[in-house]
Write a structure and sequence with these properties.
about 60% helix; elongated
Length: about 120
C-alpha cells in the first residue's frame, strides 16, 4: 500500500511539473522576439533538464506491479522532454548554411607558352 502511494505521488508530481512547464512556456511563444526572449528560452531548457532528472528518479523508484492495468509511461515522457528541448535548442542555435564562394572556377589549368591577350597590359 505504501509503495503504491509513493508511486502515485511521484507520478502525479512529475506530471504536474511537466504541465506547469508547458503552460509557462506558452507565453514565451506568443510574445515574439524580445531582448529577454533568448534568456527565457535558455531558462526553459535548464528547467527541462531539471524535470528530466526528476522523471528519471521517479522512474527508477517506481516499479510496475504484476497485474497492474495502468502504469505511467516514463520513456514516452522522457522522449517528449527531449523533443521539446531539441526544438528550443534548434531555435536558439539555428543551423545556418555555410557561405558559398560566388566566383566560378575556371577549371582550365593548362597554360600556353604564348602570352594571353587578357594578361597583356
Amino acid at each position: 500500500m505504501v509503495l503504491i502511494s509513493r508511486r502515485g505521488i511521484a507520478t502525479r508530481s512529475a506530471t504536474a511539473l511537466f504541465i506547469t512547464i508547458l503552460m509557462a512556456g506558452a507565453p514565451l511563444l506568443a510574445r515574439g522576439e524580445t531582448p529577454t526572449h533568448r534568456s527565457e528560452l535558455a531558462a526553459a531548457v535548464r528547467q527541462l533538464n531539471a524535470l528530466e532528472r526528476l522523471v528519471v528518479q521517479s522512474a527508477a523508484q517506481s516499479q510496475a506491479a504484476p497485474g497492474e492495468r495502468y502504469h505511467f509511461d516514463y520513456p514516452r515522457l522522457l522522449a517528449d522532454l527531449e523533443r521539446v528541448r531539441t526544438g528550443i535548442q534548434g531555435y536558439l542555435t539555428p543551423v545556418r548554411a555555410q557561405p558559398r564562394d560566388p566566383v566560378e572556377l575556371i577549371g582550365a589549368y593548362r597554360a600556353d607558352n604564348t602570352p594571353s591577350a587578357e594578361l597583356q597590359p
